[in-house]
Write a structure and sequence with these properties.
The protein has a single domain, classed as Cytochrome p450. Helices cover about 50% and strands about 10% of the residues. The chain has a 5-stranded mixed beta sheet. A 3-stranded antiparallel beta sheet has the order 4-10-9. A hairpin with a 4-residue loop joins strand 1 and strand 2. Helix 5 packs across helix 12 and helix 13 packs across helix 15. GO terms for molecular function: heme binding; iron ion binding; monooxygenase activity; oxidoreductase activity, acting on paired donors, with incorporation or reduction of molecular oxygen. Keywords: Heme, Iron, Metal-binding, Monooxygenase, Oxidoreductase.
């Protein structure tokens, strides 16, 4: 076993250019020179090779998910008080627990959120997507496909699924943005306060929603989740339900939005692929797997070392915090030939880690895939010749975990097909 060099770790600055916009050359250096290395700016160990990431994901005993989304800074007393008064806890069910607690939560969610229930949504999702696409194309020849489609459709779907009033979608989206900023290190004090206020408001909103459904059940996912039971297991408490609802709303929106926008960007940056999909729409599902591999909406996820151990030949102390770089593992040449090439016909694209792996595989993955597939199928049918608008930037939000274009300006011919 060897002690790691921290020279590359010192260069890990993903919240600013050039890594914010194009991190993949840096990931390649990590895999080659320092596959497990310490990044002192974030107090994290970066794990960049596919095999090492898989080792961690398969071993929850040595590599715990507890405190997976622990806030990166110590908050002032007044902000802590604000969070505590809202009922906030740093618990993120499904993400931040280990077996057997995770097994219980996952089993209860699975009772209400399974493949059959997701597949049953396709007609409703397709109707909603067609409405958004119609509005986008009506009288226009250019638009931001993030705000006009990739953001709005997943929000409509997740709010309808959970029984959230559609008119609350805009403020929920703002609360999601606040929660993302809550986990950005070195946020200015005024920005941190706004983020904390948003997180607290969201927790109050979700708790009130849970308490309402407990008293007045409806025909929605949340009511089904409240009623879910597993033999020998206690039902979910109000706090567990509100924390779980936060995870489902956040993940159900953010991951789908970033998958849709990244898929559109990948296709439009590679001439000829749009026409290829128009000629063969059956290739859309594998195209989405390749998008998830090539530019993952989830950059990575945290784990905590529970005992002194070694990984990739590097000694790690108990308590060490790891950042498993899924986005780097998905470009590992030992698994994916010509990994830097975007290839919608790649035979093993589905080996990606874009939704994690194993015990903590993303429970919302089927929904995200379905939403993205429906959007792509509609757009390739309706838009014969879309193009990125020349000179328009594609900005990314500074974030350690999530990645996706925040704006995607696209233009098309004046007569889109009906």
């Amino acid at each position: 076993m060897t002690a790691p060099s921290v020279s590359l770790g010192l260069d890990y600055k993903p919240l600013e250019p050039p890594l914010l916009d194009e991190p993949f050359p840096f990931y390649a250096r990590l895999r080659q020179e320092a596959p497990v290395t310490f990044a002192p700016h974030f107090h994290l160990w970066l794990v960049s090779r596919y095999a090492d990431v898989m080792t961690v994901l398969k071993d929850p005993r040595r590599f715990s998910s507890r405190d997976i989304l622990r806030p990166p800074v110590d908050l002032p007393a007044d902000l802590l008080q604000l969070l505590e008064a809202s009922g906030y806890t740093p618990d993120y069910p499904l993400l931040g627990d280990d077996p057997p607690a995770h097994t219980r939560i996952r089993g209860l969610v699975g009772k209400a959120f399974n493949m059959a229930s997701v597949n049953a949504l396709e007609a409703r999702i397709r109707t909603a997507a067609r409405t958004h696409v119609d509005a986008l194309l009506r009288g226009a020849t250019r638009a931001d496909l993030v705000s006009g489609l990739a953001w709005s459709l997943p929000m409509d779907v997740i709010t309808e699924l959970l029984g959230v009033p559609r008119e609350d979608g805009a403020r929920i989206r703002q609360w999601i943005e606040d929660e993302k900023l809550f986990f950005v290190p070195h946020l200015p004090p005024d920005g941190l306060r706004r983020a904390v206020e948003g997180v607290a408001a969201f927790r109050r909103y979700l708790r009130a929603m849970v308490e309402d459904r407990q008293q007045h059940p409806r025909e929605d996912f949340l009511s089904t989740l409240i009623a879910a039971r597993l033999e020998g297991e206690r039902p979910l408490s109000t706090l567990e339900l509100s924390n779980l609802l936060n995870v489902l709303v956040f993940a159900g929106n953010e991951t789908s939005t970033n998958l849709i926008s990244t898929a559109l960007l990948c296709l439009l940056r590679h001439p000829g692929l749009w026409q290829e999909l128009r000629a063969n729409p059956a290739a859309v599902p594998n195209t989405l797997e390749e998008v998830l591999r090539f530019d993952s909406p989830v950059v990575g996820m945290m784990r905590t070392v529970t005992e002194p151990t070694q990984l990739g030949g590097v000694e790690l102390p108990a308590g060490a915090r790891l950042l498993l770089l899924f986005a780097s593992a998905n470009r590992d040449e030992s698994v994916f030939e010509q990994a830097a090439r975007f290839d919608i016909r790649r035979a093993n694209a589905n080996r990606h880690l874009g939704f994690g792996h194993g015990t903590h595989y993303c429970v919302g993955a089927p929904l995200a895939r379905l939403e993205a597939r429906v959007v792509l199928e509609l757009l390739i049918e309706r838009l014969p010749n879309p193009r990125l608008v020349a000179g328009e930037s594609v900005p990314y939000l500074p974030n350690l975990i999530h990645r996706g274009p925040q704006r995607l300006m696209v233009e098309w011919d004046t007569a889109p097909t009906a």
